[in-house]
Amino acid sequence: MRLPPLPADQWDEQVQRALSGLLPRDRQNPEGAGNALATLVRHPDLTKAYLSLGVHLLFRSTLPARVRELAILRVAHRRGCAYEWAHHVKVAGESGVTAADIAAARGGIPTDEFDRVVFDATDELDTTSNLSDSTWAALGAHLDERQCMDLVFTVGGYGMLAMAFNTFGVEVERTER
Fold first, then answer.
1. pLDDT over 60 (residue 43)
2. CA 69 to chain centre
3. pLDDT: is 174 or 166 the higher one?
4. pTM of this prediction exceeds 0.85
5. Inter-residue long-range contacts of 50-56, CB under 8 Å, 24+ positions, other chains counted
6. Which of 140, 152, 171 is nearest to 53 (CA)?
7. Which residues in the chain belong to E strands, given as ranges?
8. Terminal alpha carbon distance of the chain
9. How sure is the predictor about 124, in pLDDT bands with cuts at 50, 70 and 90?
10. What is the pLDDT of residues 59-75, one digit of tens each?
């Protein structure tokens, strides 16, 4: 662990301002924040800026929750981010993603044709920072323009988060191991 969670006695007004209005109150304290958020608040201004995007991606995105979670799981697997994987396996299950779908996100071989398009898009974005015309067209057959935009930002945003979590050494909470 390169950056441990910020100790409770260091959660000051700047940290509280960074979190207020963006998260439920039960997440705005050292006990409810979890290791990722408690680590990010070491830099309150960056946390506030990222959370604005993160809240959109997770709660306000136009993507169906199932599609969002499949993309996030695929990113977490490709980036080797244990923290992101552990948290989003749980969220995915709550969003109707089956155990077989979760296994497919890890293996990259889904049985559903549209899931394959989502995985192909995620893999292309993660590898080349771009989508081929054929993948863009395949997404467009199932998603509208805003949903396609949300997918690109979901893959990019969670790729960036995986990079940060892996670099900082954010550990999965013991209750989720």
1. yes
2. 8
3. 166
4. yes
5. 50/161, 51/18, 51/19, 51/22, 51/23, 52/22, 53/153, 53/157, 54/157, 54/161, 55/22, 55/23
6. 152
7. none
8. 17
9. very high
10. 999 999 999 999 999 99
* C-alpha 157 chain-centroid distance: 7
Question: Residue 124 in contact with residue 117, Cβ under 8 Å?
Answer: no
Residue 177 clears pLDDT 50, i.e. is over it: no
Picking from 74, 78, 60, the residue whose alpha carbon sits closest to that of residue 146 is 60
d(CA 134, CA 101): 23
Q: What distance in Å separates the CA atoms of residue 143 and residue 83, rounded to the nearest whole number? A: 28
Instruction: Report how far residue 54's alpha carbon sits from residue 27's, in angstroms, rounded to the nearest whole number.
Output: 14
Give backbone dihedrals phi and psi of 31, rounded to 5 degrees, phi first: -75, -35
Contact between 158 and 76 (Cβ < 8 Å): yes
- Which residue type is seen at 34? G
Dihedral class, residue 4 (left if φ above 0, else alpha if ψ from -120 to 50, else beta): beta
